[in-house]
Write a structure and sequence with these properties.
Elements (H helix, E strand, L loop, with lengths): L2 H26 L5 E3 L1 H9 L3 E6 L5 E6 L4 E5 L6 H7 L3 E4 L7 H28 L2 H10 L4 E3 L13 H15 L1 H6 L7 E5 L6 H12 L3 E5 H5 L5 H15 L3 E6 L2 H4 L11 H16 L6 E7 L17 E4 L5 H12 L10 H7 L5 H17 L7 H13 L10 H19 L7 E5 L9 E4 L3 H6 L4 H22 L9 H16 L33 H28 L1 H14 L1 E3 H10 L9
Parallel strand pairs: 1-4, 2-5, 7-10, 7-11, 8-9, 9-10
Antiparallel strand pairs: 2-3, 3-4, 6-8, 12-13, 12-14
Helix pairs in contact: 1-4, 5-10, 6-8, 10-12, 13-14, 13-15, 15-16, 17-19, 17-22, 19-20, 19-21, 20-21
The structure holds adenosine-5'-diphosphate, magnesium ion (MG) and zinc ion.
Magnesium ion binds next to helix 8.
């Protein structure tokens, strides 16, 4: 059954149950709550405290009303003296004419109303279901999730750190504001702009800002909502959307997650999705349908431009693409400035420092970060947000909240301390590796402890990693496990290093098969790049090499890992006393930051690692 009908059914059931409860309660209310034994009843009658008695038709029970308005139930034995006693004490006597108290009648009358309701509902549902298709569509339409904001109130001032994208969209604002000028010289205004970028980089915000700057209404709908609709509804929803847009032109139509409808047709698992294709076709028809400068500009957003159907990207459709990328240092600083507005920050909060610590954060991450810090400050009963809250918030956003309540035995604490100290020390003593940002043995998320490194901006931007960097990375990842071995012996190593080992294996394999960094196999890429399961294109990586090559790959991977292992081990053995000191610091303070580590290294006699 369709989800929506199931919901309607559940809803109806809930209503029925509520009515049932309500009628039961109402039915009970005038009845007595307390009951008396017969002897007490007679005592009360003789004491003159009973005003009225209502006896059931079968004479087995009575409802008693006392002088002070209380209602009490009494079970009556066959007492021939009863009427007499009541009369002598001048109690009003009534006898119920019907068998009102028969439990059967009560139950049936209570159930009758809900039963009738159920029957009615049943017929309503039946009719709706078997009715013509248009009924279902009307149902869909009535709950249309096309959202319209007459004024978004958002301007380019609210969007920071993505200057290039803003620049390109400023043009669109111009089109919307001065359509006549462009029409006069015969210029065709673009119909569609595709915003491409990872989640949280501000695509929705940017689209709203365009509408806000141009002062036009903002219509929005999300691609994923089309897909979950009834058959035929997606397409009708698109028609609907454009009807509304035309009636409100000039305006912006924003389609979020367009990849959900706009995937390559005929691709994907489990055969094509007719519903999606119909929706996509309708979208293309609508886009081709409005001629010239109608004043509707469609902005779509996606983080998967590679899966989009080529038809969407043809001229006259989404022929403009604007990349909205993660902000760099300067961009992050600007975004922080935007979101620091309206928050009470104390003097010591240094936005530049925050921007330095957060490479890879998106605008949404940064907004979230400052908000978390503010929440922490409020929870700590502070009037201002200080750098402490910001630092805690950064850790939280990066790695999930700390699990402070988890009690750690001394043994475990020391083990985690040596593990993390191992990572940190190997990292700090490798030439050409990222600086250590912070070491912590407070468990968070899945991790028992964590060592943060600050990735260099260059490397993040270019995405290029040198061979020596990758070798160092493997050594650092192995450092945790090796420290455990050195201190507690091979018997005592824990499963805590399983993530580290996975990372090492992955890096080594990529170096051999994808980056051509193996001496023995040379600069070849082996096996096709692995496509994600839901790309809709190649489903699995195919092997295009022989058994011997496969064996050679395994050998080379092994060699790389062994080499990294030896390097890390020798660094840790040669700097054993520093390792001990660092672990002791961690056990005592739980976190050690980059300055404290630098101090330690500067005052100790350290030996750098050899170059691989
Ligand atoms: P996307 O649509 O790309 O996933 P959103 O536009 O929904 O991202 O961003 C979510 C929130 O993150 C915004 O409402 C805003 O508060 C913040 N944000 C994201 N990018 C920026 C930015 N460049 N400048 C200012 N705030 C941003
Ligand atoms: Mg969005
Ligand atoms: Zn580890």
């Amino acid at each position: 059954m369709n989800k929506r009908w199931r919901n309607a059914g559940l809803y109806a059931l809930m209503v029925v149950i509520l009515i049932f409860l309500a009628t039961t309660v109402l039915d009970r209310q005038p009845q007595t709550t307390a009951s008396w034994p017969y002897s007490q009843f007679i005592d009360k009658v003789e004491a003159g405290q009973v005003e009225k008695v209502n006896i059931s038709a079968d004479r087995s029970r009575a409802q008693v009303m006392t002088g002070d308005g209380q209602r009490v139930l009494v079970n009556l034995p066959p007492d021939p003296q009863l009427l007499n006693t009541l009369q002598t004490n001048s109690v009003d006597i009534a006898v119920s004419p019907t068998t009102e108290d028969s439990p059967w009648v009560r139950v049936l009358s209570t159930l009758l109303i809900p039963f009738l309701l159920l029957v009615v509902l049943f017929f309503v549902l039946r009719r709706a279901q078997s009715g013509p298709g248009s009924q279902a569509m009307n149902f869909g339409k009535s709950r249309a999730r096309v959202q319209m904001e007459p004024q978004t109130q958002i301007t380019f001032g609210d969007v920071a750190g993505i200057e290039q994208a803003k620049l390109e969209l400023a043009e669109v604002v111009d089109f919307l504001k001065n359509a006549d000028r462009f029409t006069a010289v015969g210029a065709k205004i673009p119909k569609g702009v595709l915003l491409v970028g990872p989640p949280g980089t501000g695509k929705t915000l940017l689209a709203k800002a365009v509408a806000g700057e141009a002062g036009v209404p903002f219509f929005s709908i999300s691609g994923s909502e089309f897909v979950e609709m009834f058959v035929g509804v997606g397409a009708s929803r698109v028609r609907d959307l454009f009807e509304q847009a035309k009636a409100n032109a000039p305006c912006i139509v924003f389609i979020d997650e367009i990849d959900a409808v706009g995937r390559q047709r005929g691709a994907g698992l489990g055969g094509g999705n007719d519903e999606r294709e119909q929706t996509l076709n309708q979208l293309l028809t609508e886009m081709d349908g409005f001629e010239g400068n109608t004043g509707i500009i469609i902005i779509a957003a996606t983080n998967r431009p590679d899966v989009l159907d080529a038809a969407l990207l043809r001229p006259g459709r989404f022929d403009r693409q604007v990349v909205v990328d993660r902000p760099d240092y300067a961009g992050r600083l600007e975004i922080l400035n935007v979101h620091a507005r309206g928050k009470t920050l104390s003097q010591d909060v240094d936005l530049e420092k925050i921007a330095r610590r957060t490479p890879g954060f998106t605008g949404a991450d940064l907004a979230n970060l400052l908000n978390e810090a503010a929440i922490l400050a409020a929870r700590r009963n502070l009037t201002e947000v200080s750098m402490d809250e910001v630092n805690d918030a950064i850790d939280r956003v990066m790695a999930g909240p700390e699990k402070k309540d988890r009690v750690m035995s001394e043994k475990r604490k020391s083990l985690v301390a040596f593990h993390e100290a191992g990572h940190a020390l190997v990292g700090a003593l490798m030439p050409d590796y990222d600086p250590v940002q912070k070491i912590s043995i407070i468990p968070r998320g899945q991790a028992g402890g964590l060592t943060w490194f600050t990735p260099s901006e260059d490397r993040m931007d270019s995405g290029l990693y040198s061979r020596s960097y990758l070798q160092n990375q493997m050594a650092v990842a192995l450092g945790g496990r090796i420290a455990e071995e050195l201190i507690f012996g091979e018997e005592e190593v824990t499963t805590g290093a399983s993530n580290d080992l996975q990372q090492v294996a992955r890096v080594a394999r990529q170096m051999v098969t994808r980056f051509g960094m193996s001496d023995r196999l040379g600069p070849v890429a082996l096996g096709r790049a692995q496509g994600g399961m839901f790309l809709g294109r190649d489903i699995m990586a195919e092997r295009d090499f022989s058994e011997e090559t496969a064996a050679a790959i395994d050998d080379e991977v092994r060699n790389l890992v062994d080499q990294a292992y030896r390097r890390a081990k020798s660094v840790l053995m040669e700097n054993r006393s520093v390792l001990d000191t660092l672990a002791a610091m961690l056990v005592e303070r739980e976190t050690v930051d980059s300055e404290e580590l630098q101090d330690l290294l500067a005052t100790s006699d350290v030996k750098m690692a050899t170059i691989a």
